[in-house]
Amino acid sequence: MYAPPQLSVVIPAHNALRWLPGAVASLGPAAQIEILVVDDRSEDGTADYLRGIAASDRRLRPLTATGAGPAAARNLGLAAAQAPLVAFLDADDRWRRGKLAAQLELHRLYPEIGFSFTDHRCFAEDGTELPGGFARCPSFAARHSMRREAFMLDHDGQAAIYAEPLVATSTVMARTALLRAVGGFNEQLQRSEDWDLWLHLAACAPVGCLPRPFADRLVRAVDPDGAEGLARRLSRRRVADAYADPVSRLDDAALALCRTSQLALEADGAALAGRRVQAALLRLSAFAQQPSRNMAREAACDLLGIRAAAQRVP
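Above: the chain sequence. Below: its structure as tokens.
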């Protein structure tokens, strides 16, 4: 007898065959899920891989998108989802053991939750662990660092999600009906469409949080002055501007903290791309807006790295 899945996992994939098998394997053997892998016009053999694995894993359903980007690909998966809850996993990320059970239990206990998210860890392509997760969100950490069990964000949860980069897409689990009711991801946004959706959902329903790192997120180096770096900055500013008014009514301080967080994100990207001078200047700008011991220390580390590199030059 057919038992409908409890959870639909949506994985958009565009030329990500290098990482995709690991992402699928990280879901584990849970029988109560369906896995919707959306091939967004890949040219690296993803389609053949999906046909092969679908033959041996009945939970997996390959879908084909048009190459319009991750927002459209995730929306295609959302439209096909058969479960009352949807979780998202990027093809180059991984879930950690225990995530599925813990998050499903949170939604069972609090069915009014619109979506939930967990802490996460960040890694570079060479496996180096990078700063990230809740530890990169000092305001949120100051309020909730003592928590070990799942909890609900306060009434100003939207402001917290706006102020700092709390929510990684690969940690999110959400009610399918609510996702569909708000129209899913905004396909007019080619970047930051996920942040836009979490802010939208936070205005509609309570938000749950699991303060344990239940996912690993891959962070790729991007030239901050290149086309991709510019596109990311413009999209983040567009989303920030769109939600500034409602967020200011919840917490005025969130607007300034958001600007600081965006500078810190840009600094992280510059450092990962090897632009240490630019990273140090961005961190100092962030420190000037919101003094933080961590930001000052990281700016100093960038500057020391520059000095060490200069000393090695013959």
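The first strand starts at residue 7 and ends at 13.
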